[in-house]
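Please check this protein record:
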Amino acid sequence: MRSIAKPMLWLSLLFAAATPALAQGSTGASDNDIDIGGDRITIGAGLAVTPSYIGSDSTIALPTLAIQGQVSGLSFNSQGTAFYLDAIPDSGKPGWKLQLGPLAALRLDRNSMIDDSAVAALGKRRKALELGGWAGIQRTGVVTSPYDTLSFGLSYQHDVSGAHRSAIVSPSIDYATPLSHTAYASISLSADHVGRGFGRYYYDVDAAGSAASGLPAYTGADKAGWKDWNASMLLAHSLTGNLTHGLGVFVTGGYGRLLGAYRRSPIVDMAGSPNQWSGAVGLAYSF
């Protein structure tokens, strides 16, 4: 999920961060004409290609949606099926900014559209509702202009629905920059450290599951550890000349690699692949 979600986050963030540079280049307005800290909403929609489950060697196509906004200085955004709120008001000025707020996520892995008969025979996994929080620090004005951004973040979320009943901790680093007055790019690196219950629920195979699927029994993921690392990128281009108000097009690409005991699970090592590729293309509208 993260390899798609992270670029979709940057799709929304770029409309906020690139506002003064893009508006000045396309309309001739000065920076003072743009209120970076003002209210705004961006909605992106498109078609994504993603593994049928985390660890699968086959992909499925499905619609994807992202939303980002800022109201009274408070920012919010979605990442796939997760929603984040930054509870620290943003002044919109270049420099350092602390980020802190709650998050909620709905995990759908191995709940439907499992494109492998052996893994499907293991049975569906329940949808997991995960609640938690995130914190970070962001620098605006780093290398290429006063408007590029470098962000360091850390999120924590715990299943409260009784599915895997454990936590996920995810550090991340993101960089985004305008390429011209109509183009924008971003890159992102992240990793996921999961609790014991997560590995047991999604990657172990018990005796009954082995008999039903033909996969060997496996208990090696019944421990906490680093599950994967992910890299993603986004390219976006304005179609109307002003990303603050109007239409744009975007394309994303992502790669993830499963690690350690999770990579050695039969649903990955035998039925799937540790290499996880994803991408998306779509349109975004800002108002």
